[in-house]
Amino acid sequence: MQREEGALTTQATAAASRLSVMNFLNEAANDYPRAISFASGRPAEQFFSLEGWLAAVPDYQAHAARAAGQSVTQAGRLLAQYGRTAGIINALMAEQLGRDEGVACEAAQVVVTAGCQEALALLVPALCRAPGDVMLARNPTYIGITGVADFAGIEILPIECEDGESWEQALARVAAALRREGKTARGFYLTPEFDNPTGTVLDEAERRSIIAGCLEHRIVALEDNPYGMFRYDGTSTAPMFSLDPAGCVIYLATYSKTLCPAVRVGAAVLPRRLFGSEAAAGRLRAELSERKSFVTVNTSQVTQALVGGVLLREAGSLARLVEAPRAFYRGNRDTLVGALERAFDGGRGAVRWNRPDGGFFLGVTLPFEFGQRETVECARDHGVIVMPMTFFSLDGTRRDEVRLAFSNAGPEAIEDGVRRFAGYVDAKRGAAA
Amino acid sequence: MQREEGALTTQATAAASRLSVMNFLNEAANDYPRAISFASGRPAEQFFSLEGWLAAVPDYQAHAARAAGQSVTQAGRLLAQYGRTAGIINALMAEQLGRDEGVACEAAQVVVTAGCQEALALLVPALCRAPGDVMLARNPTYIGITGVADFAGIEILPIECEDGESWEQALARVAAALRREGKTARGFYLTPEFDNPTGTVLDEAERRSIIAGCLEHRIVALEDNPYGMFRYDGTSTAPMFSLDPAGCVIYLATYSKTLCPAVRVGAAVLPRRLFGSEAAAGRLRAELSERKSFVTVNTSQVTQALVGGVLLREAGSLARLVEAPRAFYRGNRDTLVGALERAFDGGRGAVRWNRPDGGFFLGVTLPFEFGQRETVECARDHGVIVMPMTFFSLDGTRRDEVRLAFSNAGPEAIEDGVRRFAGYVDAKRGAAA
């Protein structure tokens, strides 16, 4: 009991600390409205076409009428009514996920959620049911999974490969260490393609190694993939969902980046069999629906119809729609990396970064610690806002890193922002020298 | 610890039993598709006007553009983007709640949620934070609150006035009994106007008595009011929110019945001061937003704009829009009560019911127990589906009652359904005689 309370206190402290950073960042944006911000990973809104997408609702309505042998009027009324908890556009989503993201699945495997965040909020407590059940995540990790675990009172622990270790070995090591403490790892959250916050990618061997470890220790991998359609160089790696032989991967889908966040439509795609058992997969699907019925009842059928209508118009693929924003993000990535190279000795000095092949983020390592105080100094004295990587850290490490988002600012702002950031780094190093 | 586990097991059993009834009712509807159903409390979809309401989105967009000094295009882009966690149509909702429901509040008191169900899912764990914190509810009660408590592992207990007792006295008695068990009542869920499932109303004295008890024992009353705009006779009683002198009532609003369920827009309206403290109200508001950011991020701004656009078009009141459905529901209530009178000796015999002044439901008391077996018999042999009241009961009582919903069926179906139900009751009593 003492240990439990200790763990809860630590969780609460970590959550409070993250919350305070989040509040602080909002305040910084308000206090320094003319600062250039690399903080927000929002998609670029100039590519949203809300009016056009709303006009696709009748397309879905006509489709639903045909499918059910109803009049268009009757289909419209049922669309506005309460509906199936697990969603109504599951078949259209399954088709799109197969075509665009290499996720071969059937409609019955898809649970439509109010954004991917709701899928996390339903899955974490469904997987971690007993005291001592814990979640794993790469470190640093997306704040959305940490917040869910914190509020559900479920411990979330970092997992990383130690020198020379495979993921399978790392999972075995962590699972054994947890067992000795009377704990059990039930889920492993990760974004293998263009991770938030680091921008990195896991290769196929790493993905297969994680799957082997998850199957061995009966850990459910939650494969988040909001950025998969935003690749700028090279070729995509198969999603873990498609490499999973016996069913340990749940795939998380979202339309927040490919269409727009305001639709609040995402999904959890369950494997046909969970650890080899069709019945277990069915039970988890049923439990997610049951939980969802007490959170959002069902995902808005208005926005499901909007997404469904766009999918019908685009013949089941969003590849054409993401072309323009992808070109914009690629340009931003190039601008950002180029500006960093010019500002910081081509990356050969004490300031280093990665050049991501896709996604919205990259990480920069600094020759000094960068926390809350530094964020204020940087915003106040140099007019640029960046995210301390500790905000995403599960254990307080990564103190000398920051995350730069390049999805929302334009190229001039990126150039100017990097110059300002370099000014801050120079001043900081000058002061230390 | 033993007691904790006992409580959890009881909770789990109760939840499983409710779930099995729910599954069973869905199956009954599938197995007996030609049965007339009094089970569903869905609003009547012939009054939905999805196409017209979607056309109101640009009205909200223009309004938002004017308010922010932006172009309509820019406002549309921001509408499609991530947005404020607590919502964007708070001021319009506050205006409508004041005009239509007597809930005087300001925008800052409103937290917009993905349907009222999300408000419950956020509030219950926010109010019941410590082990031993429990929820209270009238008995029987809406299944949405029970499901939230069950999944959050929070005990939910029935509270009823014993003979001659006021609500204030009942709250004092229950609070004292809980204290002796080391427990604390933190919240009290109720629907004072046209309760689901009973259709009953609490008068002003009862509402004031509940408020007095809640203030004395620091219990937050969750006043749900989905049916308040559907009154057929008499005059409305002031909502508890407006009778609350020091801040113990949170008002729950929804557009699922006044507009349509598919918008998934509701709200929690917080008092200005919580138990007299403005800071405490602010902390609860902030916590609800924080929790929401890890469940649905924000309520779809597409559907918020739809609701906002309709509110703008209707000049801040939905009174005109609900006229036609209200007349339909009133007719259904009259048809149902008339049919019951004809079928069951004018209510002077062993079968009795209430004549609700509004809402979607009434309760019928039978001269025998009506559970799962009886529901099947009734559907299979007599072609009519009714809800056993035990489904809504927190303690297994109400075994000889059923709930009849009259919102969704047409008048002929209601007449025919009551004849069928009377045939079942006669057969059952004949068999027992």
TrEMBL record, chains A, B:
Keywords: Aminotransferase, Pyridoxal phosphate, Transferase. GO terms for molecular function: pyridoxal phosphate binding; transaminase activity. Pfam families: Aminotran_1_2. Residues 63-420 form the Aminotransferase class I/classII large domain. CDD domains: AAT_like. GO terms for biological process: alpha-amino acid metabolic process. Its cofactor is pyridoxal 5'-phosphate. This is Aminotransferase, class I and II. It comes from Burkholderia plantarii.
